[in-house]
Amino acid sequence: MQLKTRPDQMEIKEHGDYGFPVHVSEEAINRFDSNSFLWHWHPEIELTWIMKGQIEYHVNDTCYILTEGDGLFANSNMLHSGYMKDGQDCEYLSITFSPRFIYGYENSSLHTKYVDFITASQDWPSLALSKETGWQQKILSQIQYIYAMSKMPPADYELQVHIALCSIWQHIYSYYSTVPADRLQTSVALERLRDILSYIHGHYNENISLEDISRSVGICKSECCRFFKKHMHMTLFEYVLYYRIQQSLPLLKTGESITRAASISGFANPCYYGKIFRRYMHCPPSQYRKLWLDSTV
User: Fold this and answer.
1) Per-residue pLDDT tens over the stretch 41-64
2) Please, what are the domains in the chain?
3) Long-range contact list for 18-23, CB < 8 A, 24+ apart?
């Protein structure tokens, strides 16, 4: 499987509902195509707890290697992706919730003073949570408490989840409210990165060039390459190929021919498509298609 997103990378998924905007789910990185989930964002806040194994987790331009027992806070609207690390699967818990679940009324003191202070700022995209740090361990304990309740919800489940998330938020607010100004990051880079990704995702099946991409964000080709490599830890060309392969997988799952899957996903040559496919998927596209179709019989 793979995440469904809009052209601007916003995830198309319900994270709870209006009455209870919280979603608790157990995930595993090997359930995703190519053992990774693609760059995306959502307005909900996300808390992650690693239950088993390890994962390479990216938020904006920061790369985390999270192992069993670690956690991560990812702020609202932040780009993030995850990858299998050293061929080892990772089982993790994801808790996503709307910021309004914390503050309730729009423009209330809780909203403007304690929630917007963090969610409206792009200076605090994410925070790794370690069991070795006292106040972070308290957050991890609350995450585990929510997980335990989700398995066998008590009569007041929603209320207890709300109390636990408010406790977590209080710890996060207390930390960020004391961060020195010289540790703040710029939001310009995030907007530029989003613009580059949006252009690639909107034109991946065309014959796009470095000049096309750099022109779309108003910078020179060399700066575009340098910027992308710095923030994404791969070259623009590598990312375009990787994304094209990801977009071809649903076509193969429906039994589409190799030639057509290659063409639709932006490869002019099916032989080159097969070469790149093997690089990322570790098998030929024909084998991937057969294995998938056989598994659905």
Assistant:
1) 999 999 999 999 999 999 988 899
2) 22-183 (2.60.120.10), 188-295 (1.10.10.60)
3) 20/158, 21/97, 21/98, 21/100, 21/101, 22/95, 22/96, 22/97, 22/98, 22/101, 22/158, 22/161, 22/165, 23/94, 23/95, 23/96, 23/97
